[in-house]
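FYI - complex with zinc ion, inputs then prediction.
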Amino acid sequence: MKKTNTKRKVADCRLFPSESGCSLTITGTEEEVLKVAVRHAVEEHGHEDTSELREQIRGLLADEK
Ligand SMILES: [Zn+2]
């Protein structure tokens, strides 16, 4: 199976409401970004790992430029 045209997504932590002024960006496939971003939000920003959080993060993903 060829893996061409795998679209990468970007999660920019600056777009995520937080008080820490975090400037992290995470780039990868949607699944990768989501996994890392959720872990980051929980560990660094004290969010709770809920399906709501996942949906919120998913909504912030942008296509890589
Ligand atoms: Zn962050």
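DSSP finds two helices and three strands in the chain. The chain has a mean pLDDT of 90.
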